[in-house]
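Fold this sequence, please.
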Amino acid sequence: MIDENANPEYWMVTDFVVRGNNRMVSLYRLKDGERQTVKIRAKTYTSNPFNKGDILQIICFIKEGKWMFNSETEKWEKSGTTFEDILRDYKIVEE
């Protein structure tokens, strides 16, 4: 389902998985069919919850160092070389 006339900020939620305190969200851009999986922080989600199948207007993604377990120090550390996309700001599109 591609709509070349769609707003490029409109993404459909195709999957939603709770992982620890955060959620991993699979998105599909309506304009060109691009797919992206992003993390959303629990605080961001609970302030504006959405469901699978909802259309979101994505205002802002940010890149952040991915948290990884360091087996040498046996601690979780934020990577300076491996990054992940975080969904920071969005609106739910009302039909």
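The longest strand covers residues 75-92. Residues 42-47 form the longest helix (6 residues).
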